[in-house]
Amino acid sequence: MSAPIYEFAKNYAESGVSRFHMPGHKGKPLHGLEPLDLTEIRGADYLFGAEGIIAESEARTAALYGAAKTLYSTEGSSLCIKTMLAIADHCRADKSKRMLVMAPRNVHKAFINACILLDIDVEWVYPAEKSRSLCSSGVTAHDIWASFRRCPREIDAVYITSPDYLGFIADIPAIAEVCKSYGVPLIVDNAHGAYLKFLDTDTHPITLGADMCCDSAHKTLPCYTGGAMLHISQNAPAGFVECSKLMMSLFASTSPSYLIMQSLDLCAEYLAGDYRKALAETAARTELCKQRLNAMGWRTIGDEKCKITVASAERGISGDSLGDILRKNKIEPEYTDPDLAVLMTTPFNTEEDFIRLEAAMADIRPAEGTDLQFDGIPEAIVRMPIREAAFSLQQEVPVDEAKGRICGMTVTSCQPSVPIAVSGEEITPDIISILKRYGISAISVLR
Ligand SMILES: Cc1ncc(COP(=O)(O)O)c(C=O)c1O
User: Fold this and answer.
1) What residue ranges define each of the domains in the chain, with the CATH number in brackets?
2) Which atom of ligand 1 is nearest to the CA of 228?
């Protein structure tokens, strides 16, 4: 049996058993997927006490990724991120101080939520070469090393986001070396990189030296939304594997979606099949598409093989306007902002998709534009720990009246949920202008 969770659900759906259990639809189709939607009945195993079909499926996926352990998440990488930080917190030796995690600023909101819930402090890394986008950090191993040297407190873990939303990939082997020399674990938000393992050159974070990473299977693999994996390396510190399920259960629903688990299960079977070949073809077609766009006068940026990021403002059209034109041509991009448009590709994109995109881009005449305007987040003035500020009494004020106040609830760009002002930080005039640039007109500050 190669997809045990799916096989169990299918056999059960076909068995004609009277379902005196959740879910309420009893397997009768309304939407269409109900027959395979289950709860933790006998034989169906338990996600957080897995010993049967779920354990078997997770072990199979762990073997595919070369991980010591893989945990399924039916609540995205958001759940995995909280779990990874809880694991690192649970296993650190010196608990006399609040945990301190080093991270470049382009973290996903789930990281901040974990800091609020677990009372974690952050040592923000500001790379020597400033990023031109909120979504990217451009962090190097030297930046991480310099932050270790500068930081007066002991760091408990390093956390980086790679690939980032724009498709830039960090030098994980070099960063892992720095972490190793300081004896701290490296945690990677690899939400966008589940496919990296299967490229001609395996560039998955676990292969390259990360201790833990999360992969949003639903972002780049054929999985239902919400399907994600938390991988723990064979070289991870003692205790990581053992406490991992318990740590995940702290934040997760006790009703994990069996549909999502089945899609992770079937996905593993797919990955073990012809996926590598299909992915190589997609990477080659994506590269050809980038070359064609660049020949038309556009500039594509980023390292990822399956992401096309067009720096369109440089060619006289904002990413948001480009997105509108693409939509008129029946193309929906992943993300746009004033500077950029991002498109993601997988083997499930057809040749027709690529041709449609190339034709739409050929119809727009690139012109003289402006350089990327955004100049990175300025160094934060931290006035209070994140958790303390997040749970303090707050009031909402127009951003123009927020100067000098302390940020209450972290403010993120609407998509892709990267923080502009973090709970406990002072709202400065620079932060106010970035908030306005992202269309944010009011924020909550401490009373
Ligand atoms: C970089 C990054 N990390 C984490 C997440 C959260 O992933 P999920 O939607 O699987 O919870 C996202 C979502 O967009 C993301 O872009």
Assistant:
1) 48-255 (3.40.640.10), 276-363 (3.90.1150.10), 386-446 (3.90.105.10)
2) 10
Distance 78 CA to ligand 1 centre (A): 6
Q: Name the burial class of residue 100, with classes exposed (0-12), middle (13-18) and buried (19+) by CB atoms within 10 angstroms of its CB.
A: middle
CA of 413 to the centre of ligand 1 (A): 13
Two tokens, residue 369 = 């534009």
Q: Tell me phi and psi for residue 256, to 5 degrees.
A: -65, 145
Atom of ligand 1 nearest to the CA of 161: 1
Asked if residue 73 has its Cβ within 6 Å of ligand 1, the reply is: no
pLDDT tens, residue by residue, 234-268: 999 999 999 999 999 999 999 999 999 999 999 99
Beta carbon of 27 within 6 Å of any ligand 1 atom = no
**What is the reported pLDDT for 40?**
94
Is the shortest distance between the CB of 307 and ligand 1 below 6 Å?
Answer: no
| pLDDT value for 373 | 66
165 in contact with ligand 1, CB cutoff 6 A: yes
> Using CA atoms in the order 291, 292, 296, 302, what is the torsion angle rounded to 10 degrees?
-40
Q: Residue 221 Cα, ligand 1 centroid: separation in angstroms?
A: 14
Q: Which long-range contacts (CB under 8 A, 24 or more apart) does 116-120 make?
A: 116/386, 116/387, 116/390, 116/391, 116/410, 116/423, 117/82, 117/251, 117/387, 118/82, 118/85, 118/86, 118/89, 118/387, 119/385, 119/386, 119/387, 120/85, 120/89, 120/386, 120/387
Atom number of ligand 1 nearest to Cα 75: 11
**Residues 235, 68: Cα–Cα separation, whole Å:** 8
Residue minimizing CA distance to atom 9 of ligand 1: 76
Tokens of 241: 């594997």
What amino acid occupies position 362? A
What CA–CA distance (Å, rounded) separates 35 from 27? 4
Whether omega before 205 lies within 30 degrees of 0, making that bond cis, reads no
Tell me if 161 CB under 6 Å of ligand 1: yes
pLDDT of residue 376: 73
Closest CA to 267 of 228, 232, 229, 221: 221
Residue 395: exposure state from Cβ atoms within 10 A (0-12, 13-18, ≥19): exposed
pLDDT tens digits, 189-206? 999 999 999 999 999 999
pLDDT class for 358, splitting at 50, 70, 90?
Answer: very high
